[in-house]
Please model this.
Amino acid sequence: MRTTLVTRGALAAGAIGLALCALGALIDPLQTYASYLTAYAAGLSVVVGALMLVMIAQVSGGRWFTPFRPIALRVTGTLPLFALLFLLLLPGLHALYPWIPPLDHLSPELQQAIRRKQSYLNVPGFMVRAVIYFAVWIGFSRLIRRAPGAASAAGLPLVGLTLTFAAFDWLMSLTPDWFSTIYGLYYFAGGFLGALALVALLAYVGERLGFSVPVGPERYYSLGKMLLTFVLFWAYVAFAQLLIIWIADLPNEVRWYLPRLQGSWGILGLVLLGGQFLIPFLLLLFRRITTSPKGLGLIGGWLLLMHYLDLYWLVLPVRSPYGVSLHWQDVAGTLLVGGLAVAFAGRIRSEKLAVQEAGARSEESYAV
Model:
């Protein structure tokens, strides 16, 4: 009954978000699609991050992950939905991406930069690559249920590579005259951290609502160490990208950072520094917190919020370069993506997944 109520509530939220986004597309297309892209990119990175989490645990033989595996598999099961949600971006491609012709309204310098990249930045190539990305992600999300070992070993490089190029296509090309070779790694680091955070949150919520049996404290401790590791990894990648570009001091590279480090965007950057690095780093040093379902669940929820703000900091300066400008479409996009994803995940209950959940419960009960 509780699952049904959650699913229906999420579906209603998604429907409201869809209606608001449709209205916003008529009033302010750039704001609407930028807000939607922010929510979509944040959600997709977490889902693909969960897929990679399952693969890494399988390849490395991490038994600590066994009770959390069904949760991650349920998250990865939403990939077909995200493939459909990607279609909602297509009417807004011209509003989002300045590299789509005509280019007459752009400065001569920007036109020249775009023409040098038109062999890659073109709509047919953009669409073909998107099909390849989703084919790889959805294909391996199915294969890891049937042949987890072989699929994980073969799929990790492909999933990592496609996620990197998806970040280049969908996010970095918002500013076509700028590039960073580790931008895809930055997107992966945030998404993988978000996937760990979501698993921690859902494990705690599942225990509180009686959807799953309690997980032993040592398993939570292992999850907490993984969270700490990727909090540090995200901070390292973010700082490395900023440091290299800032030291080089090349105008066409520093230009991307200038609006994001000034005014209210700079304040948001400091919030991310504290909220996605300093605060969780300090909290996750305490064993009392990392062995607590509630402690890790709350940190997981906090990190998911920070991950959304991280994508907000990446995308929305395209719409409002002079400062943060909160808009009701930000809420609409989040309701649309989050609501439909939760509703879709709530409907996933295949026989294979049920068997895996039962096996995970049995192993965890034996371990306890």
